[in-house]
Amino acid sequence: MDSILLVGAGRMGGAMLRGWISAMGSGYHFVALDPHAGPSLADIGNEPVPGSRFTYVAQIKDLPPNLHPKVVVLATKPQQVNQAITDLGDCIVSDTVVVSVAAGVSTQSISGAAFTDAAIVRVMPNIGALVGSAVSAGFALPETLPHQKALVEELFASVGQMIWLDREEDMHLATAVSGSGPAYYFAFCEAMIAAAETEGLPSDIARALAIGTVTSAGQLLTRKPDPTHLRETVTSPNGTTAAGLGALLSNGELKRLSHDAVRAAAMRSRELS
Ligand SMILES: NC(=O)c1ccc[n+]([C@@H]2O[C@H](COP(=O)([O-])OP(=O)(O)OC[C@H]3O[C@@H](n4cnc5c(N)ncnc54)[C@H](OP(=O)(O)O)[C@@H]3O)[C@@H](O)[C@H]2O)c1
C-alpha cells in the first residue's frame, strides 16, 4: 500500500489530512508525525475508510519501519521545515515527492536540506481545506515526473482546487492573495459587523446579517466566477447599493488598502525565504 507522510498536523496539516482521507483514502496508508496532535486526530481511527490505513506518531523513532512514502507533505511552521526534513533522513528516497506548504520556504532551501535528489514541490493551500474548498497554488521543480505531479494534484484537488504556477517567484503573491486571503475577508466581515452595531443594529443581528451576506456572496461567486458582473448586476442606478458602493469605492481607498495588504504579505513571504 502506498504511504503518504504528513509532517506537522496542526491547523493546516490536520485540515488537509482529514480531507485526503475522506476523498482519496482507499489504497493509501496515511501517516501523521507531530509531537502534540495525537488528541485532535484520535477520532480518525486505524482504518478510516475501507481499504485505507492511518497511523499517528509523535516521534520519528515511532514511524513504521522501512517507511518510504510516495509523498512527504511538510506542514510545520516555516522555520521548522528544514530541520524536519533533515530529521527524516533516509525515509526520503529518490522517488519520494517532498511537498512543502510552508510560506516563503524556497525549493532551493528544501532541496539543500534533503539528503537525496527527491522531487520538490511547493504548494500554498488555504484554510478552506477545512471545508473541502481550499484554493491551492503549486510550483514543481522541472525534474518532477508527470505521475508525481499528478499525485500531488490529486492530494490538493481532494481538498478544493489546485492551480499550477510556472514561476516559483509567484508563490509569494499566491501566499499573499489566497494563503493569507481568508483572514482579509474575515477582517472585512468584522468591520461590517462593527459598522452595523455603531449604526444601531443589535449585535446578534449585525453578526447574522454580515456573516450570512459574505457566505452567500461566496456561493454566488462559485456559481458565476465574475465579481465585476455580479457587482454590476446587483447595483441599480441611484439605489441603496450604489450609494454604499459610492462610499466604499469613491476615493480608491479599498483598492489601495487591498494592494497594500497583498504587497505586505508578499514582502513577508520573501523575507521568510
Ligand atoms: N494556517 C493557514 O491558514 C495556512 C495557510 C497556508 C499555508 N500554511 C502553512 O502551513 C504551515 C503550518 O501552519 P499551521 O497554521 O498549521 O501551523 P501549526 O498549527 O502550528 O501546525 C504546525 C504543527 O507542526 C508541528 N511540528 C513542528 N515541528 C515538527 C516536526 N519536526 N515534526 C513534526 N511536526 C512538527 C507543530 O508542533 P508544535 O506546536 O509542538 O511545534 C504543530 O503541531 C506553515 O508553514 C504555514 O506557512 C498555513
List keywords for this structure.
48% helix; 273 residues; elongated; binds NADP nicotinamide-adenine-dinucleotide phosphate; single chain
CATH classification, class level of the largest domain? Alpha Beta
Chemical compounds bound to the protein = NADP nicotinamide-adenine-dinucleotide phosphate
Distance between the termini: 35 Å
- What is the H/E order? EHEHEEHEHEEHEHHHHHH
Q: Please, how many domains?
A: 2
CATH architecture verdict of the largest domain: 3-Layer(aba) Sandwich
Main sheet strand line-up: 3-2-1-4-5-6-7-8
Radius of gyration: 21 Å
The total beta strand count reads: 8
Q: Characterize the main sheet.
A: 8 strands, mixed
Helix content: 40-55%
Number of helices: 11
Mean pLDDT: 95
Task: Kindly name the structural category.
Answer: alpha/beta
In percent terms, what proportion of residues is strand?
A: 15-25%
Unreliable stretches covering 5 or more consecutive residues: none
Overall 3D form? elongated
Fourth-tier CATH superfamily name of the largest domain: NAD(P)-binding Rossmann-like Domain
Fill in the CATH topology of the largest domain.
Answer: Rossmann fold
Question: What does this molecule look like?
Answer:
This protein has 11 helices and 8 strands. The chain has 273 residues and is an alpha/beta fold. It folds into 2 domains: 164 residues, NAD(P)-binding Rossmann-like Domain (Rossmann fold, 3-Layer(aba) Sandwich), CATH 3.40.50.720; 92 residues, ProC C-terminal domain-like (ProC C-terminal domain-like fold). Strands 3-2-1-4-5-6-7-8 form an 8-stranded mixed beta sheet, sandwiched between helices. Helix 6 crosses helix 11 and helix 7 crosses helix 8. The model has no long low-confidence stretch (mean pLDDT 95). Bound molecules: NADP nicotinamide-adenine-dinucleotide phosphate.
